[in-house]
Fold these 2 entries.
Entry 1:
Amino acid sequence: MSTENMAGRLCLLLVCTVMQTSLGAVRLPSIFSDHMVLQTNSEYGARSFIFGFANPGEKVTVDAPRGPYYNLANSNGRWSIMLDPVGASMKTYNITVSGEEGQPIVIKDVMYGNVLLCSGQSNMVFTVGGMLNATAEIAAAHHPNIRLFKVALTESPTPKWDVNGTWQLCSPQTVASFSAVCYMTARFTMDMHWHDQPIGLIDSSWGGTPIQAWMTPEALKQCPQASKEGSIDVYNDVTGPGDPSVLWNAMINPLVGYSIRAALWYQGEANARDAVPQSTKSYTCYLTHLIQSWRDLWGIGDFAFLYVQLAPYGNGDTVSYVRQAELNVLSHAGGDVDTTGMAVIIDLGEADHRVHPRNKTEVGRRMALQLLHVALGLQQPEVNFSGPSLVKATAMSQNMVSVEMLFGDGMFWNGSHGCEQCCNGASPVQVSPDEVFAPNSTWYNTTATIKGSTLQVVVKGMAETLMPKSIRLDWASFPECVLFNEHWLPASPFIANISFKSVSPPLAVSPNLLETPPMGFNSWNYYHCNIDEQSVMRTADAFIANGMAKAGYKYINIDDCWMVERAPNGEIQPDPVRFPSGMKALADYVHSKGLKFGLYTAQAEFTCQGRPGAYNHETQDAATYCEWEIDYLKIDGCRGARHPNRSTSWQLFRKGFDDCYQKTGHFIVMSVESCGSMSDPCHWYTPQLANMWRTDGDVQATWASVMANLDKNNEMASIVSKGHYNDPDMLEVGDVGLTFTEQKSHFSMWSLVTAPLLAGNDIIHISKESLDILTAPEVLAVNQDPLAKQGIRVSPSNTTGGEVWARPLADGSMAVALLNRGDEPVTITVTWEELSLNPKTNVTIRDLWNRKDVGEAMTKFSMKVASHDVFLFKATPHT
Ligand code: GLA
């Protein structure tokens, strides 16, 4: 060795670092070294940077294609230079970096192409040498234009500025110990799209590490709840370093700014090991903020972030929670602007449930498809990148859920270990009536039938009183049966909420003969049990005489107490003292007046007044009522034994009435008690069976009771359709209790909310005042409007003041109620926004009680309303 060389070596080993620093020689992080690949920027506008160290204020020159470029080191001795765009090619370059003093650095054999940063834990570390068809892949790996940079393992409590590593040309010798997923993704992308464009692969991964180790402290702070719930301290026992941010500091931070085309991530197993339901939320937060912070710090826009969803491994369902988080982070499924992509590999597990399945070839192929879609913007069908992807799950009935899938063409089930085992065990689709992630959720198995791109899921064994709330697919660490589409790509496992289809189908057989809510009389509020046939006949007569029939009142309905026992053959018997002529004769009398006749029963053994109910006699009673030609039946709930499921009795009556209609053409209105909550499955099936259903308890002749029933009814507005109405209970107009103003308000609001109008007062001796309320023609016209759409509260609720309620009418106008619930007069304003009208629309205001136009308004309308009063008007917009 010459003296000069000796000195050079010595300098290198001992002194030169110090000397160079003091002399201000530039230095580069090791990622900028021979054989590197710089990100080509010709295609998508991002730029490449070279950065390093020098003396503060030192001028640095980079002699690179389209250069030279200059910059000064900042006060910390850091400098960065942005390079002009250079296209990807097989050309190689030397790049020289020099400072004001010292030796220039020459980086040799540099190529421009696409750079992928690969990170995560052991499934990313897993080498080409360990994968299934390693021998063939290794033998074929003569790709000098693919360059590999393996970041040496190191951790640090503080941010570092350099990593250990060198760029190597991809060859059978170098590829064997490189990350299989990283390499196979590149290899497939090269085959499918990039061809001979250079690819730089940086693998910075460490087995056994939790995601928190790869996150910046700032990103971790975004998930305080997640950190509390968990997991940071839990990872002291992991095989890799588990402390927060230590790998970010040492293995990612030094690379920040080295331009990349995409990041590839395969991690989560360390976070899944103790997975509990909260892990979904935690990992969703972690991954979201890891991605965001990496992008923010790189400063080259939303580069593609692609990850592998956890493979099938292990037992139980712990892995599922992290998989769901990975699905949550994938905010788009196939849109034009996707910036994240996820390779689903739920079919690639191995029989021994190992945590590192070896088929990394297919993992790489699916990641390449994601890369083509997300990073290069290719869409289907040019690149079929996605398996079936959940759009929404909708309950079509209490036990049937329709699951709509995107990319669901040609769906089929297949088991990863032989199709004969597939779907014989636990169902791949399960439905729960409980809250998602409730600790003791009961999941019911299903049969799931593929219909086009929809799964029709029938829930098995769930009680009729429960409503399906959540659905999950392949919720197991190692699912046996996987859903594919025609491109042999699998659907991600998922857990999702089920929404409800709220439009009720028409009644099974009988046509809809109740176009608008029924109007009539019911005996309960005034007569209670003191009803008899004379009172019924006189009420019918009064309807004709006092003009109520002409106004539209038709039904004369007898409530409880008309029946006393059953005959030996089971037939229901009317009270012989009160109804000596029998019900058929009474029905005939009412019909002879051109009116309709209704009766009452209860689905239980006894009515609320202890008379015989319909329990186990439904079919016989329906036939009896058909024979008597009654037009209306109220079915109460009430006392004693009853069917376990509330709807059984309703179904039997429904069937009986449908039979009646088919045989005789006679239609019987069915009114049931009760269904008053959108979280009760009755809200789905009741409108299919009945024409109306009580939404609340018995109304009383008090303001508070009337308002309470109105509010409860409002919650159910969405399930009303023509012929099927919410019933806030009978009218208290004309009964003792409400003031005249309150009676008018009660009637206004019942009209607005499509309520059945069943007078509950003494019709035979009705006062002029009550009659005027019950027959107010323009108020009745609102109730009977052919659109039959229930009015709703359109302003915020205000139980002690003014509220605005509105209902669209068939002629394009709206009925609006300004309701003052409070004890003082208030000015109530309705804005056109509340009525979904353009503010510039000119609207005619018509007072419906006084039957006169009161003016025109634009933007809004205000009126002073007395305590417990309603200003009810029709708003007719002029377009
Ligand atoms: C229940 C109903 C009322 C009435 C009575 C009769 O309380 O809700 O509408 O029918 O029973 O007993």
Entry 2:
Amino acid sequence: MNTTAPNPSPAFDPPPTIRTAVTVAHGDGIGPEIMAATLRILQAAEARLDLETIEIGEKVYARGHSAGIEASAWESLRRTGVFLKAPITTPQGGGVKSLNVTVRKALGLYANVRPSVAYAPYVQTKHPGMNLVIVRENEEDLYAGIEHRQSADVYQCLKIITRPGCERIMRYAFDYTRAQGRKRVTCFTKDNIMKLTDGLFHQVFDEIGAEYPELEKEHWIVDIGAAKLADTPGIFDVIVMPNLYGDILSDVAAQIAGSVGLAGSANIGERCAMFEAIHGSAPRRAGQDLANPSGLLRGAIMMLDHLGQGGVAARVHNAWLRTLEDGIHTYDLFHAGTSQQKVGTRAFADAVIDRLGLEPLHLSPIKPAKAAVIPVRSAARIRPPVKKVLVGIDVFVDEAGAQPADLAQRLKGLRSGQLDLEMISNRGMRVWPGGLPETTCVDVFRCRFRIPDGTVGGASHDEVTRLLHSISAGGLEWVKTELLYTFDGEPGFTRSQGG
Ligand code: NAD
């Protein structure tokens, strides 16, 4: 009799009688076809899985669930803790949330692992030596989804980067690199511009990296890093990035390795994990038996490794490599000359199944993973308490057409206690004091009130409240505020450009 293991077993290839419960969603567009192909291959390879199917995506959105998922599906996901997910179509338009972002955040899947490997000469690529992994932070950054419209002119999206979030992703990236026997971790940020948010990501990379002396570490500004990635990807090994850069650049990496249709991804959390293809539901290709199932199959192989079924994972992986090597290619990989046979989704799966038990003849065969699960360590680090002092406030005022000097004169008369107007900026550029007439202004002005440097004890919330009250009473509309603090004497805010 078979038994079902409720959670991934960390053991290396558990006894064949132990099966693991996995939640499966067939998705939209090409999703059902590539999932059927993937599951057939897993079954033929005797993966020890008990599948529970849930419905997500288009049909669920159409039933009025704005997140594209229902309560019963959450129940299955939380119980099994393992999700094999086909791509879904996200309806366009307001009110609808991205299911992918919701699932990653709700289940705490903080690390997105996306390998990109070239299979030259069997799959055409300009970068034959490419073999890299992007580890993308998966919960924070602009994907926190906190957006507001402040005025007729101004829309804003908040970029949230937290210390615990950075510590978790860095710990994971370095542990992953070590466990995979890889040698170098590169960090991409834009900390020359975003000194606090990307600056923290870079700083934590340096702090945690110091605990891995055997690994090489380097940091690149994301623009030149992206250019290098597109031009000479062979110089990279593991790259760790904040959410947005990682989302964009992992698609670039997959495409230049051969095709977005080749890449799979793992989304890892402390209690749950989700495995998928990196591409979307490709609606134009749906229902035609055309799509390449390789991305989802690669996701499933990562899942088998994660579940401790490294032997099955290697068997499937080697059969898949042999299929590519034999030139049996779906349309996205097919090139006359290198390919032997153009096949559809089903025939590609048949070809992989026929090769189970074989290894590639020229590409490097895969050895069963030694570590079943990359250790996921809680990163709560004990830090000494920090001294936080309120030293001012940025008040964002909606005043279309205002002249900065006139606005400053009105605000100077509204000071509260020790809080006095220090500067005004527009879209981050200082326009008072000083400023150039050439600077284009929109309707929202950021007005910074500070207490004098060296004031003992800082400002009070009462002073802040009185200031806001007098600004309103003075006929000006404030649409947003940000309090200014120092932390152990270091400002927790940036200066404006030009000031
Ligand atoms: P897409 O990745 O679905 O497709 C872009 C193009 O890539 C396709 O037209 C096709 O030419 C090619 N392609 C993608 N997968 C392929 C495969 N397996 N085999 C062969 N060719 C393949 O991107 P899109 O068209 O921008 O998005 C379509 C939908 O997918 C949107 O609704 C989007 O929101 C959604 N999406 C879902 C996910 C997910 O569920 N994880 C990820 C990205 C996009």
